[in-house]
């Protein structure tokens, strides 16, 4: 999954990128709206995390540019008033996160939006264990692990399981 992070504060963009990379996402960072527009023109992304207050082109202008592409967008911004949140959602954002935010919640919101648009992760790799949610297969050291239907369902219903092991 390719994620574009559009955030002018380096410390925040790095925090977001590090945590999403740990979850298996391929992240690109743009520190202003102009660079983001160029990247969006040249590449395809599964999700865009977008700040509103950006140099050159702000997030409100950028989302108008993104909307025809049907790429899901989550605003991540310090603009937290009810009016701002409603405006962002009405402009086409799929979700809205107010800074400061908890990393775990941000990851959950990313996963939720991707699930809703049918782009959720279906293959997880944790050390030497691979889990394919679509084919319902678990392999350890490339050898199949036999699980009952209930065991497999429990395994994939525990997203915290994936976070805990992928971060270590």
Task: Describe it.
This protein is α/β, with parallel strands linked by helices and 168 residues long. It folds into two domains: 2-116, Rossmann fold (3-Layer(aba) Sandwich); 123-167, no CATH class. Helix content is 42%, strand content 22%. It contains seven helices and nine strands; from the N terminus they run E-H-E-H-E-H-E-H-E-H-E-E-E-E-H-H. The strands form two sheets. Strands 2-1-3-4-5 form a five-stranded parallel sheet, sandwiched between helices. A hairpin with a 2-residue loop joins strand 6 and strand 7 (129-132). Helix 2 runs parallel beside helix 3 (59-66). The chain is elongated and about 55 Å long. The two termini are 21 Å apart.
Name the helicity range.
40-55%
Name of the level-1 CATH class of the largest domain: Alpha Beta
Overall CATH architecture of the largest domain: 3-Layer(aba) Sandwich
H/E element order: EHEHEHEHEHEEEEHH
Relevant CATH superfamily of the largest domain:
Response regulator
Tally of strands: 9
Domain OmpR/PhoB-type: 121-168
DNA-binding region: 121-168
Modified residues (4-aspartylphosphate): 51
Protein name: Response regulator transcription factor
Offer a few descriptive terms.
168 residues, alpha/beta, Rossmann fold, five-stranded parallel sheet, four-stranded antiparallel sheet, 7 helices, 9 strands
């Amino acid at each position: 999954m390719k994620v574009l992070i559009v955030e002018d504060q380096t410390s925040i963009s790095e925090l977001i990128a590090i945590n999403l990379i740990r979850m298996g996402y391929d992240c690109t960072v743009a520190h202003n709206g102009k660079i983001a527009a160029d990247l969006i023109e040249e590449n395809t992304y599964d999700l865009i995390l977008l700040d509103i207050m950006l140099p050159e082109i702000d997030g409100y202008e950028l989302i108008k540019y993104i909307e025809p592409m049907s790429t899901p967008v989550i605003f991540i911004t310090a603009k937290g008033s009810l009016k701002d949140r409603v405006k962002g959602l009405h402009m086409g954002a799929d979700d809205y996160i107010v800074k400061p935010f908890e990393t775990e919640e941000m990851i959950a919101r990313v996963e939720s939006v991707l699930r809703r648009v049918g782009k959720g992760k279906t293959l997880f790799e944790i050390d030497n264990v691979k889990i394919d949610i679509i084919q319902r297969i678990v392999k350890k050291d490339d050898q199949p692990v036999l699980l009952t239907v209930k065991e497999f369902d429990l395994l994939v219903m525990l997203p915290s399981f994936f976070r805990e092991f992928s971060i270590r």
